[in-house]
């Protein structure tokens, strides 16, 4: 009956149109660094911030942040990074290298706890960062983003000897990161420049000494008393940091925005 009315005739044959759906391939972004990357305790979790953004729905973030790591330690952990087969790698190291150089107390602690084979120096930092970038490029075939350091303390023009030396070294190490990124054809992610611009517009207090007790106290406030990192920042008198070293949400979101630009780039 259907044939008689022409439904099955050739001109009425149903045709399946080619699908216009596109399969979006998930990309993996590996984030290698220290406590500022781990995002635990009093450090803002910028990776969680990026995960929550709708534009990153097809991005898988792998967190390879370990508290206290220097560039030397991050280099030792490259096999784990390579194993996740990343398409992009964000490397943010150097803050602990600077602290270990400027503070004898920090240097003793890191030398023992992180099994450092030699005294920290700008040359050793550059050597480790260069090797890290080269191995990632050769073994991962991934786009590499090298982050400059964020300022420690909030007064870039301070005359306090400790803060002044921190300012000098953070800038020096950030320049090293920029040079290595240029030499090894990596993307340079301007974290130092972004935060420093904010601090120059509105300077805050100086970071005048390094001690472990304040860090332990702030960790207790966050992990046990359940205070937010921004509450702890206000208690300590910081506007961009929680404790002078780790970033609060205000600066942490600036970091996330700069790294987002690297993720979005083809």
Automatic annotation (TrEMBL):
Keyword match Protein biosynthesis: no
Matches recorded under InterPro entries: Ester_Hydrolysis_Enzymes, SGNH_hydro, SGNH_hydro_sf
Keywords: Hydrolase
Gene Ontology MF terms: phosphatidylcholine lysophospholipase activity
Domain of life: Bacteria
Stretches assigned to the SGNH hydrolase-type esterase domain: 31-199
Name listed for the protein in its UniProt record: SGNH/GDSL hydrolase family protein
UniProt keyword Hydrolase present: yes
């Amino acid at each position: 009956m259907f044939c008689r009315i022409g439904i099955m005739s050739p001109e009425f044959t149903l045709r399946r149109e080619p699908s216009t759906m596109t399969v979006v391939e998930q990309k993996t972004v590996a984030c290698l660094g220290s406590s500022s990357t781990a995002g635990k305790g009093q450090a803002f979790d910028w990776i969680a911030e990026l995960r929550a953004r709708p534009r990153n729905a097809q991005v898988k973030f792998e967190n390879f942040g370990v508290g206290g790591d220097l560039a030397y330690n991050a280099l030792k952990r490259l096999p784990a990074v390579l194993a996740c087969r990343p398409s992009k790698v964000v490397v943010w190291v150097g803050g602990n290298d600077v602290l270990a150089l400027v503070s004898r107390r920090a240097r003793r602690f890191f030398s023992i706890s992180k099994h450092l084979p030699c005294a920290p120096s700008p040359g050793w930092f550059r050597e480790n960062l260069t090797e890290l970038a080269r191995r990632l490029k050769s073994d991962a075939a991934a786009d590499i983003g090298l982050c400059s350091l964020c300022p420690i303390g909030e007064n870039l023009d301070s005359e306090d000897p400790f803060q002044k030396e921190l300012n000098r070294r953070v800038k020096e190490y950030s320049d090293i990161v920029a040079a290595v990124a240029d030499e090894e054809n990596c993307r340079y992610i301007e974290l130092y420049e972004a935060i420093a611009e904010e601090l120059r517009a509105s300077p805050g207090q100086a970071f005048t000494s390094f001690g472990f007790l304040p860090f332990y106290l702030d960790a207790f406030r966050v992990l046990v008393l359940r205070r937010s990192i921004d509450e702890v920042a206000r208690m300590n008198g910081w506007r961009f940091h929680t404790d002078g070293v780790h970033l609060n949400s205000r600066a942490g979101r600036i970091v996330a925005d700069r790294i987002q630009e690297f993720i979005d780039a083809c």
